[in-house]
Amino acid sequence: MPELPEVETVKKTLESLVLGHNIERVTVRWPKMIKRPDDIHEFAQLIEGQTFREVARRGKFLKFHLDDVTIVSHLRMEGRYGVYEASEPFDKHTHVCFHLDGDLDLRYRDVRKFGTMHVFSKGTEEDYRPLSDLGPEPFSDTFTVDAFYQRLQNTKRNIKATLLDQTVVTGLGNIYVDEALFQAGIHPERTASHITKTEVEKLREAIISTLSHAIELGGSSVKSYVNGQGEMGMFQQQLFVYGRASEACKNCETPIEKSVVAGRGTHVCPNCQHK
C-alpha cells in the first residue's frame, strides 16, 4: 500500500500534469469505488465542467481541489493515476477516467479494485469521514513530543500496532513503521505506554527523518508503486530492515529477523532493537 512518501510523490507529479485542466466528462467503469455520492451519475455531474486547481495530500489520501468540490481519493493497495492521450485504449484495470481538455485523460488504474473516491463541497472535506478520523500529520506543528507521548500512554497495544493506527499519527504504513522503529532502537513488540518520553522524542525524530528522506527519493517501489509519471521510487535501496530478512544489519551485522506483529510482516534487528 502506498504510504505517505509515495502519496506525496504522486501528488507532486500530478500537479505538473493536471493543474489548470478542465474535466469535460467522467467515465466510471467500477461503481463500487465511488463512495460519496453513491450514485455514479451524481458523482459525474458534480465534477464535470470543473477545473483542477490544486492537488493536496492528507495522510495517505489525495485531495483534488476543483472549482467548487474536492475529490478525496485513496489508492489502497495498488491504485495509481496517470495522464494519457485520449486516443489510447483503456486497459482492463482502468476503472475511473476524467476526460480532460486538450484530448487528455486522467485515468485511475487499480488491479485489485480497492481504491475509493469521495466528493465533498470544497472546504468541507476535513469535516467528514474518511479525513475527519485522521491523526496529526508527521510534519505538522501538532505532532509534538508531548502530544505523541500522551497518545502512546493511552493505549495498551504494542508500538507497531499503535503506529499503524491512522488516528495516532497519519501516513505511516508497514514499511516506514519498521524503518522508524529501527532508527529509534525500539522493538515493535514493546508496549506503547511503556516507552519513555526520551524514547518517544527519538521515535518522533526517526519518523520525520525517515519520511523526509523517502520523499526526497520519490518513495519506495517495493511492489507495484510508481508516481504519476510512471517512475519508480528509489528509497527501497536505503531500507535498513524492511524486506531484508536474514540479511546482515547495516549497523551491527546481526541477521535481520522477520515475524508477524500486529498482523503484519515485521522486520527487526534483535541486537539494535531490544524488547
From TrEMBL:
GO biological process terms, semicolon-separated: base-excision repair
Span of domain FPG-type: 240-274
UniProt domain Formamidopyrimidine-DNA glycosylase catalytic: residue ranges: 2-115
Binding site for DNA: 93, 112
Cofactor: Zn(2+)
Active site: 2 (schiff-base intermediate with dna), 3 (proton donor), 60 (proton donor), 264 (proton donor)
UniProt catalytic activity: 2'-deoxyribonucleotide-(2'-deoxyribose 5'-phosphate)-2'-deoxyribonucleotide-DNA = a 3'-end 2'-deoxyribonucleotide-(2,3-dehydro-2,3-deoxyribose 5'-phosphate)-DNA + a 5'-end 5'-phospho-2'-deoxyribonucleoside-DNA + H(+); Hydrolysis of DNA containing ring-opened 7-methylguanine residues, releasing 2,6-diamino-4-hydroxy-5-(N-methyl)formamidopyrimidine
Species this chain originates from: Texcoconibacillus texcoconensis
Note on cofactor: Binds 1 zinc ion per subunit.
Subunit structure and binding partners: Monomer.
Protein name: Formamidopyrimidine-DNA glycosylase
GO molecular function: 8-oxo-7,8-dihydroguanine DNA N-glycosylase activity; class I DNA-(apurinic or apyrimidinic site) endonuclease activity; damaged DNA binding; double-stranded DNA binding; zinc ion binding
Organism phylogeny: Bacteria, Bacillati, Bacillota, Bacilli, Bacillales
Keywords annotated in UniProt: DNA damage, DNA repair, DNA-binding, Glycosidase, Hydrolase, Lyase, Metal-binding, Multifunctional enzyme, Zinc, Zinc-finger
Function as written in the Swiss-Prot or TrEMBL entry: Involved in base excision repair of DNA damaged by oxidation or by mutagenic agents. Acts as DNA glycosylase that recognizes and removes damaged bases. Has a preference for oxidized purines, such as 7,8-dihydro-8-oxoguanine (8-oxoG). Has AP (apurinic/apyrimidinic) lyase activity and introduces nicks in the DNA strand. Cleaves the DNA backbone by beta-delta elimination to generate a single-strand break at the site of the removed base with both 3'- and 5'-phosphates.
InterPro entries (alphabetical): FPG_cat, FPG_Glyclase, FPG_N, H2TH_FPG, Ribosomal_uS13-like_H2TH, Znf_DNA_glyclase/AP_lyase, Znf_FPG/IleRS
Similarity annotation: Belongs to the FPG family.
Segments passing through the bilayer: none
